[in-house]
């Protein structure tokens, strides 16, 4: 594991190595022709990440996507250090669940190296509005908690690379309460 390497990059690198192993038995096919990508799973029941490699590349291999998926799953299942579970879903998706031990090791390594938060690939500009405490009345626990939560959220978003503007509303005399 390299410094500042995200989980997604680690999984992608492992997938690329597995695909290279799979296609080594196809010398007539150029490795550069293959599209290899992973995505976050849309549904938690399918795992943490998934790939549609078999669907997108089965024609190049001249094989059924389900057959390609099964062969890829066999190779990936050998990586028990990284994956808790690897399976396929028809018509040709391969799903990955990161192992808890790998995740804990990843977090420990990140903390010890000082890289607590890997940076996002595409930083967003975020306008975070929080706390609308009534200046004419006492500060209550809800407003205090909202201030702490909002500021913490802004700090976390900045730490992973987003551009965050914080807006803290003051001089809102609470007229909306009377409406």
From TrEMBL:
Cellular component per GO, a single term: cytoplasm
Molecular function as annotated in GO: arginine-tRNA ligase activity; ATP binding
Keyword Ligase: yes
Keywords: Ligase
Pfam families per record: Arg_tRNA_synt_N
Highest taxon, organism lineage: Bacteria
Arginyl tRNA synthetase N-terminal domain span: 13-98
Record InterPro entries: Arg-tRNA-ligase, Arg-tRNA-synth_N, Arg-tRNA-synth_N_sf, Rossmann-like_a/b/a_fold
Gene Ontology biological process: arginyl-tRNA aminoacylation
Protein name: Arginine--tRNA ligase
Gene name linked to the record: argS
């Amino acid at each position: 594991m390299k410094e500042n390497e995200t989980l997604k990059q680690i999984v992608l690198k492992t997938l690329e190595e597995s695909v290279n192993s799979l296609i080594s038995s196809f010398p007539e096919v150029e490795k550069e022709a293959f599209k290899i990508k992973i995505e976050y799973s849309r549904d938690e029941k399918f795992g943490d990440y998934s790939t549609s490699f078999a669907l997108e590349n089965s024609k190049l291999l001249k094989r059924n996507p389900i057959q390609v998926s099964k062969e890829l799953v066999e190779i990936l299942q050998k990586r028990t250090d990284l994956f808790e579970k690897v399976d396929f879903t028809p018509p040709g998706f391969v799903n990955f669940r990161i192992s808890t031990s790998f995740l804990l090791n990843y977090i420990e390594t990140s903390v010890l190296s000082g890289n607590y938060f890997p940076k996002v690939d595409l930083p967003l500009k975020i306008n975070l509005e929080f706390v609308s405490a009534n200046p004419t009345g006492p500060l209550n626990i809800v407003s205090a908690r909202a201030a702490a939560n909002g500021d913490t959220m802004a700090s976390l978003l900045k730490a992973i690379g987003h551009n965050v503007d914080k807006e803290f509303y003051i001089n809102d005399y609470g007229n909306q309460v009377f409406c």
